[in-house]
Amino acid sequence: MIAIPQRPAAHFIGGDWGTSRLRLFLCDEAGEALDSTSGPGVADATGQFARLLESLIAPWVELNGTLPAVLSGMVGSSIGWTQTPYIPCPAKPEQIADSCVSLCDSVYIVPGLSCHNRFDAPDFLRGEETQILGALQLVPALRSGYWLLCLPGTHTKWAVLQHGVVREFLTAPTGELFAVLREYSVLVGKHAGDAGSDSEAFIQGLAQFNAFPEAQLVHRLFECRSRQLQGNFATAAAAGYLSGLLVASDVHGALRVLSNSVEPPSVVLIGSSDLTQLYATALACHGHDATCVEGGAASRAGLALVHRRLSRGVKIHGI
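Given the sequence above, the corresponding structure tokens read:
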């Protein structure tokens, strides 16, 4: 008689609820996704957070009964379901997990992180803290030594880990700058591709920035226009060149500010494969072989860690 493998049991629902999109996962105990669905982001939820969540998870509840939901991202911001605290750095993983805010008996929202960065400015993040928690589970080596994490995106985050503790971080709105300049400036043009559509132009942008690293980025941006006029590349390649300049500036600045002069950091990239590949290419120009962790896997592993601590009866803050 052939034994039919049983489907892993569902233990919780994990969610990344950002400004523009909600991603929900029906997860087993380890955080592996058994099923997934998506919905509107915080900006389009119009205050109907409970109703939206209930409608999206209704098929899962029908099959599995009521399950706890652990949510991270902008759902815990001032425009979200409720505003959860920002845990000040340095922050230990257990401090982050234990500072969740409970809602509706079975819904828990992960807090963000705050710090005063190297430029004596306040800095904040939400959502990325859960990916950092997940990376600590997926890459156990991160729990000791000095590491630099890069989470590229609309607002790229650079976080310093020391023996598993988030010491500080720095935000660079690299993706937002790219989107604004591509869409609304004359530097690139409406017929340009996206950031990774022309790898040759991207690498050219990296090389040109690195040739003059002392130059301010604002003094380099017009090249995206002037090099088109001179015929160095076609309009379609301008976005790749712009991306190369921006990513090179981001990487150069972060390494200069956050590197430990005594112990050069190992770098881990957390995010989508297309963005981590761009940053890995830029880091290679500085002699760094980066380790890449898929962002969705990191989020689910972080949510699973929080769920395990909830299951053990760790005190969670309520409202």
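The radius of gyration is 21 Å. Try to locate this feature in the token string yourself.
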